[in-house]
User: Fold this.
Amino acid sequence: MLRFASVFVGTLVAAFSLQGCGGNLPAGKSCTAVACSDSVRVDLQGLDAIEPVRIEGAFVVGGERREFWCDISEHQGSPDWTVGCDQKRVWINDIASAAPEELEVEVVVAAADGGDLVFRGKVRPTYHVEQDFNGPGCGTCAHGTATAIVAPEGAR
Assistant:
């Protein structure tokens, strides 16, 4: 299985190699075409004692509310790929390169036992810029991470 996976990944990388990276590079320059999500990920803490079944909420950026939801048991989520979530984190794409100091986040985690855990507030992401994201001289990709502690409504 491992051999198949490495052959498959190698084939994908080769298939997505671009000669010239848009034509601005010296002849013979080869870049991959890996997409950069430019995302900020917010890790959710406080979930150890529950089994999440649904997570929903929103990021508020520049006055614009960008909503997300994930139905964990059904493996379904928001149709808008620019925001999303899974059992332990929420994220927003296409924002990390702007490096906002704070992001307003609302998260409601519904538990299998019927209790909700909530976070409503601001987070301060830490950013990392990955150099040569698509190969030497082939661009950068920014990523941000933050943490939010969810708790029962009114417990904070």
In short: The chain is about 10% helix and 45% strand. Confidence is low (pLDDT under 50) at residues 1-26. The first helix runs from residue 2 to 15.
